[in-house]
Amino acid sequence: MPDAIPLSGPRLLERFRALDDFLLAHQDLWRPRPFNFLQLPWEARHSELAAWLRRRSLEDAEAAHNHPERLAAPEPFAGLAAASAALSETGELPAQAQNGAPERFAVDVPGRKWQQIQHFASRLQFGAKPRHWLDWCSGKGHLGRALAHDGTSLTCLEYDRDLVAAGQALSDRLALAAHHRLQDVLATDAASQLDASHTPVALHACGELHARLLQLASAAGCRQLAVAPCCYNRIDSTDYRPLSAAARASELQLSREDLRLPLSETVTASARVRRQRDQSMARRLAFDLLQRELRGIDAYLPTPPLPTDWLQKSFADYCRDLATLKGLPTPAPRNWPALEALGWQRLAEVRNLELLRALFRRPLELWLLLDRALFLEEQGYQVRLGRFCSTLLTPRNHLLLAERVTHNACG
């Protein structure tokens, strides 16, 4: 049965090891990106599943995107889906029964972001009341203000000068004891901004930014912290550098491309953005067929991000200009509509083949979250890991709560 309560204590390491075994055993299924292959390495071994997925439409793939585990696909899909669901269950962190920030604190905050802040704030249950909030990578400080609405001291760290000024103006307008500071949190002097009296919080700080917070906050002796990580691929190295001893001991070596897998789930894109994304991907997949012909090499060729106005070009001009950009021979005239249609056909196949890979989104994300949780345990924290909101509000809906338990009267 899936766990119904957040992960903590010995269960953190137990779950990490189970996820590690699962990801290692099936890495031939989740590492290769269908976008890059005409035929995936696993298709010969699981030919029935591959053929079933390839027969499905683009609309079928879209309908299953957020819940691939519900798909009635041939084995080994169902077995992997069940294992993925069981290993990915973390339970929901309990909400506090107390008053949140007044609605006037929501001024200038997008609706979805304000809901995320409210859910995040409601889950911050610590043994001792925080004395000074530190909003890490704060932007305008919306999260920090929501937490400090009761008069608790607040410091906001942000590297964008305009956001610092705007945030200070909002805090002053609400008469809060808040200090917005200009700070690059990756700079060497960032450590000077933290001390043991702070309770650092970060809602969706990207990769290197939240990892840096965990390291600096634990080194500064901060008694409590709360972090909802995001964008694990935003790192300053080619490969992932594990934080905990357990992850360092693992045979699982992750590239920056691997770290993008948990982020492939989307719930908020508008219809217009989805149409542009689909057209761009279909054209790239069609060009992939063309470049293999032009190079005489049956292998994927990476192409750079292109401005959206490239989608206004005719497909023939798109291909000719992209071939020039990549230093390839000018393609000879051909049936361009037929080639573009093949791109759309490939897009449907790619999206459906991605559904198998999608079963590993949550397991890989939880492996990364547990690496952070175990690192904090090594620094002397008691850690709880669970969901703070629904995936419909944000797919990055996991929160790490860490607190050092002191045994002296002045703690």
List the helices and strands and how they pair.
Layout (H helix, E strand, L loop, with lengths): L6 E2 L1 H16 L1 H4 L16 H8 L3 H7 L12 H12 L22 H12 L9 E5 L5 H6 L5 E6 L2 H13 L4 E5 L16 E8 H14 L3 E7 L14 H5 L21 H25 L19 H11 L10 H23 L2 H18 L3 E6 L10 E6 L8
Parallel strand pairs: 2-3, 2-5, 3-4, 5-6
Antiparallel strand pairs: 1-7, 6-8, 7-8
- Number of separate strands: 8
Structural class: alpha/beta
Order of helices and strands: EHHHHHHEHEHEEHEHHHHHEE
Helix percent reads: 40-55%
What fraction of residues sit in β-strands?
5-15%
Low-confidence stretches: none
Tally of alpha and pi helices? 14
Rg calc? 24 Å
Based on Cα principal axes, name the global outline. Answer: globular
Rounded mean pLDDT is 94
Distance between the termini: 39 Å
Structure, described:
The protein is of the alpha/beta class and 411 residues long. It has a domain at 271-357. Helices cover 42% and strands 11% of the residues. It contains 14 helices and eight strands. The protein has an eight-stranded mixed sheet with strand order 1-7-8-6-5-2-3-4, sandwiched between helices. α8 links the parallel β3 and β4. α1 packs antiparallel against α14, α4 packs parallel to α13 and α11 crosses α13. It is globular, with a radius of gyration of 24 Å. 39% of the residues are buried.
